Amino acid sequence: MSKPKVTVRQVMSERFVALEGICTVAEGVAKLREAHADALIINKRDETDEYGLVLLSDIGKQVVARDRAADRVNLYEVMSKPVVSVSPNMDIRYCARLFERFSINQAPVQEHGAIIGLVTYRDLVLRGLE
Question: How many independent structural domains does the chain possess?
């Protein structure tokens, strides 16, 4: 008997904040607190651009550890771009393999060119193996 497929859509979180890269890290952190989120999606500047991603670990490594002023550092300075995104219809097993292959812990979920969520190893394990 085969197990039913679990997709990224079934386990992803919709708790992320989308901002412009010109915003400061301080503004981004305030928005994260307000939304109880863990990641910032940096919007595309135009249709030929790509999304960016700022994680709490990026802020810790590039701002806190280097004793930089959060109100003087822009998000575009600490973001990862371009980022690997996944389809909401992807099987979580393939998503976990993708994470392993690219040494990443989370990825934006993109549908029809828009970010609709974020998926992490935590989601894959805790929600995917229910």
Answer: 1
Q: Is residue 74 part of a domain?
A: yes
- 47-88, pLDDT tens digit by residue? 999 999 999 999 999 999 999 999 999 999 999 999 999 999
In a domain, 34, yes or no: yes
Domain that holds residue 22: 8-127
The answer to whether the CB of 88 falls within 8 A of the CB of 9 is yes
- For β-strands 17-19 and 39-42, DSSP reports them as parallel
- Locus of tokens 């550092």: 73
CA dist 1 and 117 (Å) reads 31
How far is Cα 90 from Cα 78, in angstroms, rounded to an integer? 28
pTM exceeds cut of 0.85: yes
At 101, list the tokens.
């292959």
Residue for token digits 């930089």? 68
Kindly state whether residue 25 falls inside one of the protein's structural domains: yes
What's the alpha-carbon Rg for the chain, to the nearest Å?
15
d(CA 107, CA 109): 6
